[in-house]
Design brief:
Blueprint: H1 11-28, E1 54-55, H2 59-64, H3 66-69, H4 77-98, E2 108-109, H5 121-124, H6 129-144, H7 147-158
Antiparallel strand pairs: 1-2
Amino acid sequence: RIKNFSTSHDPQLVSMYYQFGRYLLISSSQPGGQPANLQGIWNESTNPAWDSKYTININTEMNYWPAEKCNLTELHEPLIQMVKELSETGQQTAREMYGAKGWVTHHNTDIWRISGVVDGAFWGMWPMGGAWLSQHLWEKYLYSGDLNYLESVYPVLKS
């Protein structure tokens, strides 16, 4: 079916992939839980690839791109909570590593919300994880227009 898609008319395949994407987020991200990570809840290894962390130089963000667009706003909550927590640990990292105000996090974090450099200089020195993740806070506001929500995340966005 996938092989023939480029030469045939199969709108149901597109619909099926859309619903599959929704299913992946629904099954791996719930309010009050942890955000979806690289392998999600399907990891079977005690030593998974990339430690099954949150790779925040696009992978984690990609998991949540459909959240608002697919009317799954409540599933954004674990990621937004993680960003708030990273803004706290990232303040120390910004101060100690860069002598800067605000907060920073690099390309990878985990359940303890590490924000410093990990996994070597080539990937690890990428300090834009917080900026990329913060786009999700703003997008949630753009979809909801909820000023109370914006007020609650504004300190994270500002710093």
